[in-house]
Amino acid sequence: MHTDSDSISFTSTGFKTACNILSLWECSSEQAQRILKLSKTSYHKFNAAPETVKLNNEQLERISCLLNIHHALRCMFSNPENVRKFMKMKNHNDFFAGRSPLEVIEHGEFLELNEVAKRIDALQNNL
């Protein structure tokens, strides 16, 4: 049985992990706020006190997408530098149209974030 403190701990850990991933990808705080769909105030409050994080279902889904992207990148690449830089690399397939995955997700649209996660996962599964 999960308690409220388990839920808070899970949410806090997910938020911190997502922020670490976004930092690894060299996202600005503004990009991170848009990707996570958080106001500037909430983003900075949660960074200062992660135990206070309260997220809605969409925000939790966004964190899940980020974790899945990072996991797929770690499975694809043995070199940590590739894991870190992939999200900023230009991609010329039809979906990305010369944009990097980060350029696609930084606008904060959930459908684009989810699609990028699916495409990176498919790429990883085809290796």
TrEMBL record:
Antitoxin Xre/MbcA/ParS-like toxin-binding domain span: 73-124
Annotated GO MF terms: DNA binding
Source superkingdom: Bacteria
Domain Antitoxin Xre-like helix-turn-helix: 16-64
Alphabetized Pfam families for the sequence: Xre-like-HTH, Xre_MbcA_ParS_C
Name recorded for this polypeptide: Antitoxin Xre/MbcA/ParS-like toxin-binding domain-containing protein
UniProt organism field: Pseudoalteromonas nigrifaciens
